[in-house]
Amino acid sequence: MQSKLSPLEPINDSSFSYGSEGFIVSKVHRENASRLQELLHPDKIKGKVAQRHAREDARKLFTKYWLEAQHKHYDIGYKKSSTKDDLRITLETALANGQVNAVPSLILERERKLADKYRTLNDAHLAAQKNSQAEEFAKLDSPSAEANYSIDLFLSKYFLDDCGAPDKAKTPAPLPLPGLRSRLSLHMAAGRIPGLETYSGGSEPD
Fold first, then answer.
1. Over the stretch 130-184, which tens digit does the pLDDT of each residue have?
2. What pLDDT score was predicted for residue 1?
3. 150-161: pLDDT as tens digits
4. Quick one: which of 80, 132, 201, 202 is 20 to 30 A from 59 by CA?
């Protein structure tokens, strides 16, 4: 069976990284000003339930490395010797001063460069995987084996044109698939393509 395509591992620039989950610092995403306001000042939120949820989130998130990450996301200075409480105070001060209302341009530029580099490398990474899978697919000796390996490649080979639309000229007669492991998966994949139909027969389980 064909393995799923896996994205490239994140690429790094100092403590900043960019990968399939976006721009992060020490595996921590950037929180916007309104979210930081909720986490730092849950008592100011309307509604007891919402306040409780914010306190629970803050209790889980407020580690030293998470607070350091938010400082780096907004280029807020801090001492390496700062404690967790120190970092919370400087983040609260930055929030009050409007320092987190917008991401500094130098951080945005770093994010843009990392994102561009990652997309280029990831495109090549995914293309290499697709080529490898196509080579494996080409070695198979029957339509059933091909469908069992990759339904998408099977449908493309026998039933679709280069644009992914049904091409009845490719396989004008019904194509039997003895030994197909999952008829349900084939039906579902075909059902997502307008104009493509499948038919089941026999007593083999889905």
1. 999 999 999 999 999 999 999 999 999 999 999 999 998 999 998 999 999 988 9
2. 74
3. 999 999 999 999
4. 80
Longest dimension (CA), the chain: 74
Q: Quote the pLDDT of residue 206.
A: 46
Q: Give, in order, the Cα–Cα distances in Å from 163 to each of 117, 142, 156, 166, 183.
A: 28, 24, 10, 9, 24
What 58-62 contacts at long range (C-beta under 8 Å, 24+ apart), as own/partner pairs, is: 62/88
CA 85 to chain centre: 33
| Whole-angstrom distance, CA of residue 79 vs CA of residue 83 | 9
- Which of helix, strand or coil describes residue 19? strand
**Separation between Cα atoms, residue 114 and residue 192, nearest integer Å:** 35
- Angle subtended by helix axes 183-191 and 151-159, to nearest 10: 60
Which residue type sits at 57?
D
Q: What does the alpha-carbon distance between residue 97 and residue 91 come to, in Å, rounded to a whole number?
A: 10
**Positive or negative, the Cα torsion across 94, 97, 102, 106?**
negative
